[in-house]
Amino acid sequence: MATPTGNAQTVVYVGDSRVARPTKVHVPRDYMAYPGKSETFIPNFLLKEWMVGSVVLVGFLVLVVMHPAPLGYPADPTNSAFIPMPDWYFLFLYQLLKYPYLSEQFVVLGTVLIPGLAFTALTLIPFLDRTPERRFTKRPVPTMMMLLSLAAIVYLTWVSWDHYQHELKAKNIIPEHIAREQEMHAKKQAGGGTGGDQPEPAPVKVAAIVDADDAAYKEVYMKATCVQCHGAQLKGNGPIPGLLGIGDKYNAEQIMDIIRNGIGGMGAQYDANISMGLTDQNLEDLAAWLAKQKATP
Amino acid sequence: MLKAVYEWIDGRLDITPMWRDVADHEVPEHVNPAHHFSAFVYCFGGLTFFITVIQILSGMFLTMYYVPDIANAYASVDYLQHKVAFGVIVRGMHHWGASLVIVLMFLHTLRVFFTGSYKNPREMNWVIGMLTFGVMLGLGFTGYLLPWDNKAYFATKVGIEIAASVPFIGETIQNFLQGGDIVGAETIARFFALHVFFLPGVLLALLAAHFILIRKQGISGPL
Ligand code: HEM
Per-residue confidence at A10, pLDDT binned at 50, 70, 90? Predict the structure, then answer.
């Protein structure tokens, strides 16, 4: 690039300008002013650092090409067999909560106190370790504490992962992203689709609420348990189906049966609603009103 | 021509000193891996930044397909992964990059710790670094939910439950993250906004401060 000429100034700045007229040309300090073999950042040093960078990049891309990012099956809140696992770098914190004195009534110790103390101490280390000594061999306390924490992190992460593997084996579970890949592979071999066509989400129904002024909606539905899961607008919530257009699927009697006995992942609702002060007649009205919810009148 | 354009701008804004300062500053021998192989530990900060740039770029491409909506989130990731040309590469880069950036950032933190570089006068940059660390963990947590598969859903549910157990403010944190009574449609929208707008914004501000301080103070001297 151009070397600063210093006289390219085309405007003489007046009082309204915040840009000062350069008083001196920027001259980088002489290399000789520094001890050892120093060099300029751009391009000399950056090109050397880039050699390290390209080694990392190649390793990274090999990983990316060899292992596609995992994807399991769509989220299903009613799936009770699924073993929750955070991403690996949270495992040590997660494992902490599995110990008796760090869980249940002591959980605050495991969720707040220990991680909080550790992170606060680490953040404030410049103010705790104030000697001018920089070599870690000469400041044993911080060094030992860091080494112990590292050992604890490695150990907890490993234990957590090990437990998970054992649990999978004991319950005979194949992690979903692997199961799904196998399934897709099998399908492909059978001459089926090329994948990407797993459980399609149900097409979004574009039905409106029928008879929204009915007391069964305003007085019953809104007070019943249903609204908590199926939503005030009957639109459902995530994997919980909406009830718009439900009348196309069930009649009043069938809906009453669903309220009494539940369906699939939804438990029986009858008693819960009665104990909340609704009457049997209310629920009958509700079922009748729901049966009127047809997408195509 | 280019030179003329440059000089035209420079005459008005005096930009030369800015980039000369970045380009010409001396990099001392003890951090140069070409002179001392062990000095590669000083590259971890730069490498973290490199992967952070990859995260931002791959993330920008992911949002061209990702739909932050409970009915379509999973389907859009699935489509990207299996149907879009190079989609699996872009998603793979973002997925593995998220882990790699944590590893490199951790190694960078250890380098700074064991070389005692957090000491006077670099205390502030250490604290800025720790805040960056927190933001990075936040990005990891919020990003994990977005594919909306079972792993994402249950990990987030447990994570929020843990946050909710914090005394006094637990419930507030839970409401803020969930945006409602359950992990559901609102949660996806929130996590998406946090992951794509709020946290990267904070991250960039912190990184700018980090780099300005390094430039001002220079790298710490040899041990
Ligand atoms: C996204 C995350 C981060 C990026 C991109 C980053 C980048 C950098 C870079 C490029 C340097 C120059 C020296 C080197 O490369 O080693 C540096 C120095 C430094 N970093 Fe970071 N850093 C990050 C996170 C952190 C964290 C988590 C900490 C510690 C808590 C930290 C503390 C410091 C300190 C104190 C220095 C000055 C060290 C010295 O002068 O020797 N940084 N950082």
Answer: low
Q: Which atom of ligand 1 is closest in space to residue B111's alpha carbon?
A: 16
Distance CA A182, CA A187 (A): 9
The phi and psi torsions of A39 (rounded to 5 degrees) equal -145, 165
Q: What residues form DSSP beta bridges with A40? A: B26
8-state DSSP, A39: E
Residue B79 near chain A (CB below 8 Å):
yes
The rounded distance, in Å, linking the Cα atoms of B185 and B160 is 15
B25·A41 Cβ contact <8 A: yes
Please name the residues in contact with B196: beta carbons below 8 A apart, sequence gap of 6 or more: B59, B63
Q: Are B171 and B164 in contact (CB under 8 A)?
A: yes
Picking from A44, A73, A77, the nearest residue to B149 by CB comes out as A73
- Rounded CA-CA distance B185/B164 in Å is 19
CB contact under 8 A, A89 and B184: no
| Positive or negative torsion for Cα A227, A232, A238, A240 | positive
Residue A266's SS3 state is strand
- HSE value, Cβ hemisphere, 13 Å, CA-based, for B112: 25
Rounded CA gap, A146 and A130, in Å?
16
CA distance A220 to A227: 10
* Whether the Cβ atoms of residue B36 and residue B30 lie closer than 8 Å to each other: yes
> For residue range A75-98, what is the model confidence (pLDDT) as tens digits?
998 888 899 999 999 999 999 999
Dihedral sign, Cα of residue A123, residue A153, residue A134, residue A28? negative
Instruction: Please give the Cα distance from A218 to A178 (Å, whole number).
Output: 47
The best mutation among B41, B54, B112 to test binding of ligand 1, ranked by most ligand atoms within 8 Å of the C-beta, falls on B112
- The shortest C-alpha distance from A54 to chain B (Å) reads 10
| Cβ of B214 less than 6 Å from ligand 1 | yes
Tokens 């319950």 -> residue: A171
pLDDT in tens, A13-54: 556 666 666 666 656 555 556 677 888 898 889 999 999 999
For ligand 1, atom 8, the nearest C-alpha belongs to: B45
Residue B17's pLDDT band, with cuts at 50, 70 and 90, is: confident
The Cα B108–Cα B127 span in angstroms is 14
Burial (CB < 10 A; 0-12, 13-18, 19+), residue B147, is: buried
CATH code for the structural domain at A215-291: 1.10.760.10
Ligand 1 near B55 CB (within 6 A):
no
CA A273 centroid distance within chain: 35
Q: Which long-range contacts (CB under 8 A, 24 or more apart) does A163-166 make?
A: A163/A95, A163/A98, A164/A83, A164/A85
Residue of A nearest to B221 (CA): A134
pTM of the predicted protein model:
0.73
